[in-house]
Amino acid sequence: MAKLWGGRFQAENTKLLEQFNASIPFDYKLWKYDILGSKIHSKMLCKIGVLSEEELMLIHQGLDRIAKDIQDNLFNFDIADEDIHMAIESALIRDIGEVGKKLHTARSRNDQVALDFRLYVLDSNQQIQQLLITLMQTLLEIAKDHIHTIMPGMTHLQHAQPVNFGFHIVAWCMNFKRDLERLSNSYARNNYMPLGVGAMAGTPYKNDRDMMAKDLGFIAPTLNAMDTVSDRDFALDLLYDLSMIAMHISRIAEELVLWSSYEFKFIDISDAYATGSSIMPQKKNPDVPELLRGKSGRVFGNLFALLSVMKGLPFAYNKDTQEDKERVFDSVETISLSLEILNEVLNTMSISKENMLRMAQVGHLSATDLADFLVRECGIAFREAHHITGKIVAYAESKNQDISMLDEEEMLGLDSRIKKGVKAVLNLEASMNARDSIGGTASIQTQKQIETLQEWINHYNEK
User: Fold this and answer.
1) CA angle 223-226-230, nearest 5°?
2) Which of 13, 19, 36, 285 has the fewest C-beta atoms under 10 angstroms from its C-beta?
3) Phi and psi dihedrals of 23, rounded to 5?
């Protein structure tokens, strides 16, 4: 069949141009949305008198047959058709004849692709939200079991203060809560219907865009035709949201790599999600977290690639925007798989409370508590208390001990201003639970954080 747009052309396209110009090798993924949009568009054409009821029925039946052929892998995606829109329209004309040629009345491929791609982006947004909810639920289940599991809290990757493992897991969870909020906001901002604006200036057919918006589940039609066909902010919003998720996953993956090493041994990744070395038989490599960490660069690159495509385009449609889909498809698939496998790794890993506690017993994690005791109980200014505590840390270092292991009599002998009772504040559990302010690591505060997040998830799921 000749090109559906080829009436004014004298020569056929070269094979090289067909290969360079075609998007069907990747935009075939939009077929469900293209058929849905065509059904709603034809329904609208019937309402405004362009199609009869009989013609509408023929078109819908033809589109249903095409959908079944695609689902059954019987449809021929021919590169000569250029894109999914032309592929389906050409197949429809072959199937039902002249009536099929009426379908494209009052629309352009420009608003057609804007609709299909936006529907894909919005659906992907919701699917990833559900994956994030599942992952957050897994994290909260882990956190619930470890509100009393003491581990070293770190700054600069150096031992800082004692925290509980549940508290650390809640910190991870907060990142994904923000990711969900970003996705939700992006969804609401972009839930407007592009179909019916034509090539770039509207149509003379009095398209009922309100009807189509309602039938397709959008809030309302888009406002300006020129903006509509050139807008890819909805895709960039998703790419940014996915980049943030990738960054958060990468940070968690980094900690999983560290924690699974012999130097930490806080966790053990299930053999089902680890690999070995081709030369060193003793090795068990945390390949899943490493790949999760590495995939962030790929997702960031997709965001920057589309920003680069869009930055110099004049308004209305430009063929450059054909470069949008592969970036979004890749990021959606990468993040979806990453969230799924991270959830499984977390669900199957083993956690060593003993190793966490042992590591918390080095590095003088309760030093801040000693300084606070000197301020609160001994009336010493904080800067002086800081200095005294530093001297006691140096003394403990000289004995190859942690300050929590020093006897009270030893500390009383190091400075006459130190009062009895100092030993009690150096206990790691007491130190952890002393941080009882809102947002703190005390077990009771961690439990409240878990409950608050669980309530938030429950409310989110009810929306």
Assistant:
1) 105
2) 19
3) -115, -5
Ranking 27-36, 39-48, 76-85, 442-451 by mean pLDDT, the lowest is: 76-85
Average pLDDT, the chain: 94
Of 52, 261, 270, 277, which one is the catalytic site residue? 277
Q: Residues, the chain, total?
A: 463
Q: What is the mean pLDDT of residues 104-127?
A: 97
pLDDT-wise least confident of 20-24, 48-52, 80-84, 443-447: 20-24
Helix (H) or strand (E) holding 417: none
Beta bridge partners of 193: 221
Q: Are 29 and 123 in contact (CB under 8 A)?
A: no
Cα–Cα dist 137/460, whole Å: 12
Q: Would you call 277 a catalytic residue per the annotation?
A: yes
Q: Environment class of residue 171 by beta-carbon count within 10 Å: exposed (0-12), middle (13-18) or buried (19+)?
A: middle
Torsion of CA 455, 456, 457, 461, to 10 degrees: 100
Catalytic hit among 156, 278, 398, 437 = 156
60 is catalytic: no
> pLDDT tens for residues 400-413?
999 999 999 988 99
91: pLDDT strictly greater than 90:
yes
Q: How far apart are CA 437 and CA 418, in angstroms?
A: 26
Burial of 224 (0-12, 13-18, 19+ CB in 10 A): middle
The answer, yes or no, to whether residue 4 has pLDDT greater than 80, is no
Q: Give buried/exposed letters for 196-212 (b at 16+ CB in 10 A, else e).
A: bbbbbebbebebbbebb
Helix (H) or strand (E) holding 265: none
Closest of 346, 354, 361, 344 to residue 143, by C-alpha: 346
Could you give the domains of the chain?
Answer: 15-105 (1.10.275.10), 110-353 (1.20.200.10), 360-462 (1.10.40.30)
**Maximum Cα interatomic distance, the chain, rounded to a whole number of Å:** 101
Spatial distance between the Cα atoms of 258 and 348, rounded to a whole number of angstroms:
17
Crossing angle for the helix pair 31-47 and 209-216, nearest 10 degrees? 140
The DSSP bridge partners found for residue 164 are: 150
User: What confidence category does residue 5 fall into, taking pLDDT thresholds of 50, 70 and 90?
Assistant: very low
- Joined together, the tokens standing for residue 203 give 């149509």
pTM: 0.92
CA-to-CA dists, residue 104 to 49, 50, 159, 297, angstroms: 14, 11, 66, 41
